[in-house]
Amino acid sequence: MAQKAENKACAMTTAHAESMERRVRLTCRVNGQFVVEDIDPTMLLLHFLRDRLKLFGTKEACGEGECGACTVIMNGRPVTSCLVLAIEAEGSEITTVEGLAKNGELSILQQEFIELDALQCGFCTPGMLMSARALLDRNPDPTDDDIKEAMSGNLCRCTGYRQIFDAVKKAAKREREELKRS
Amino acid sequence: MSQPDYKKEMEQFSYKQHLDYESPYRHVGKGYSRADATEKVTGQARYTYDLEFPGMLYAKCLHSPYARAKIVSIDKSKALALPGVKAVLCGEDTDIFVGLYMQDKYVFARGEARYQGEVVAAVAATTEEIAEKAITLIDVEYELLEPVYNLDQALKNETLVHPNIGEIAHTEGVFFPQADTNIASLNKSRRGDIDKGFEEADVVIENEFSLPAVAHVPLEVHNCIVQADPFSNKIKIWSSAQSPFALRQMMAASFGINESDIQVVIPYVGGGFGGKAGIHLEPLTALLSKASGGLPVKLKMSREEEFNYMPTRAGMRGRIKTGVKKDGKLTAMEIVYDWDSGAYADYGVNVGKTAVYGGLGPYDVPNAAITSNTIYTNKVFSTAYRGFGHLETLWTIERQMDVLSQKLGIDPYDFRMMNMLRPGSRTITGELVTESTGSPIDCLKAAAKEIGWTGRKTEEEREREWKTGKVSGKGFAMIQKAPAMPANTSSSVIMQMCGDGHVKMMMGGVDYGQGAVTAMAQIAAEELNVPIEMVECRRVIDTDTNPYDWNTVASKLTWMAGNATIRAARNMVKQMKKLAAAVLHSAPEFLGHKDGYIYSLHRPEQRIAYKDLALGYMFPDGSGIGGPLISHGVCMADGLTNLHPQTGQGHPAAAWTFGCHAVDIEVDIESGDIHVKKIASAFDIGQVINEKFVYGQVCGGIVQGIGSAILEGYKFSDENVLLNPSFTDNKIPTMKDMPDEIVPIYIENKQYNGPYGARGIAEHTMISVPSAIGNAVYDALGINFYRLPLTPENVMLGILSGEKDIR
Fold first, then answer.
1. Predicted ipTM beyond 0.90
2. What is the pLDDT of residue A8?
3. Which CATH class is domain B48-145+222-300?
């Protein structure tokens, strides 16, 4: 029985069609800086950040919104940038991992990730940090279950999550103390 | 002789936990943060996935949709005609083999595709979307063939995955392919007289345990960039790989070129777990580069390809027959391990081989026989995976030990204590256990004490809890594993001092998350007796500059590269003292070294700074003596041998690391959900090198083990097509699956040839988690499960069946 197989491309369609004909203008703020770029309307936010803005800190690990490695904060909410079209970011405020440290100083969250060794290979780390940042921005005093809920969309195969959980919890406490002082 | 009171010994035993760990050394044992942490939390760390080069092309692969099919024809013409396509290659274009231990795999399927997912053709093009489009334009005509579905069918040998199995070139004397069968390697070990052992037994119990294939799931998928010069043999590789030197060697073997023609560069690596050891995408990508005029070509897997093209942990079935005296003394153990290793041997045959010396658990069994069959089937092939077969063999042994103790009416704690290896015992391969080997007994005592083990739950207690909808249970399982490595494995380190007294060191092993570069710097700083900031171990590995290491696998890097680091650092100190002795008119023996100074032991104010020796010492008149300080250190495993082909006798283990996981779980009898409330894990690691990283290994391994225990597993259709190649259907643990409490316990019985007495700890943290949970499930429900994973569905089906044995 001879058969012709229907060839299909892979599920994680990392390619983005940068066609020259269909261009739209995208204006947004990324890590505090204004960005104006003409892009293909089918371009994903993930690829916009990595390929256009050269922000390679945002990682891709599944391409289907299941692993959280590509998480960035858009208008205060964590989004998996592999499932968001770049044009959806029109007029928005975006923070990536490169935007966490301010004035050459690591943020409390980053410091606690280092201190508690909440990272091993580091590939999930940017996404973890962004999910944690988004959580602490909307809920400065999260319960244990709040942390687990907010972080459960981010997969990590190295750490077993324990140190990540502890780092988020400790960073939350330190940030609250900081806020009280100021 | 009356039996010792094991429980009393447990109560009196004291140990060091993660939280109260204190090191007697200046650097060794301290919990320094990883040297590359800042790059990782700021997004600066660059993985192969992030690299781009001028003129770089993108590759995509076309995979066989069928588990077994004859490739009748491939028409590449339409793909080649697509503007932007630089090369299209398939099986008929190359006869290059890729093989670790057996030369059984072509770069592309040639003539026949042997698993669903095997690469049939590949394209290199100027953009990813052109490459993707070109893939859809390749016409392949297949003729479907009946696949070899599973172990039982494979063992009938009616259809052979590799009909030429008798002629396949392989590492002779180590692997034993059986002609006219599907057995890629048959390995054996024998101790004592197995028949006599069963005759002596009062009780003989036989069981079968099994578990499915699972995926490694590194967050960074397999990917590489290769530039292959079409006018010479030169090949340059950037790869997300664990083992640059093994990769170089195997590339050279495949292409028939010199190792020195190949340069392998390993930037940051986003996890490996064994799946990035060996050689995978690099030969295919090299061929595409060569065919494209030598442009660099990048090939990266999608997550789907990661599941069904890249290799897995093999499925396994362990059939075990055990003889035991009424008093609990083991008399005989006969085990047959059958590995469902998929279409190609890769590391799978070595996993099979390892089972014959690692597959008995840490027990002294006077009469034992292990047979291990690594078996070809038409499935995605298997490779090394954290634990290298020991999670699977421990699922067999440690569950069987629990079942045996139930039948004998002996506490499983006492039963294990009675039969455990102790100084004076011999392993199945005849190795003598000494004080230096480490103590599984200490590990069991500590872990069981930590979960408050007092004995199994009674039927009344179980019934009382049953009414609440949640039943708790406790269980434990031993760990024993040595590195699976060739007897002549080696590691090496080079150190150079900068003019300011800082030391730069290089090794050949890769830090893909375990923290090796930091740990090695700690060891160097300890020996050089300088602040930790004075030493940096190079992050990127480049085979053109870094010294050799066999492989970064097997939990052996700390042990081997650690020893090499000590030797390199001591050599550097020796050179400095020799030079300083000349300058100070002293003798090296009269000099000490500390904080960047070589000083006179008797007159400490007479001293010379390291930095003044670093590039040679310069006298006031400008003349110099000595020269730039460069040192090296090597470590080759000592006293190891290949195993005897028939009896398995020999010395395979550079370092046994023993341990024990003890768990306290809760089973929801309405949903079948298993929740780990507490896990206490004890490991005899000899010496903690970096307290944070050991803790990281423990927590990470435990949760990965929980994945194998309650979540993960490949599912195949009736046509042997993988049904769950995505995170949606093939879940790994999330933060919600982590145990409520993890108690790591470090036992430090020194191994006399380990660095500061250390043994490896990496894989060990994972490998008996499923068996401990399986044992605790019995304690909770009174039901023995024999197959993994213990998903809510499988547990519920077990509960509802009313059976006590779910086989």
1. yes
2. 55
3. alpha beta
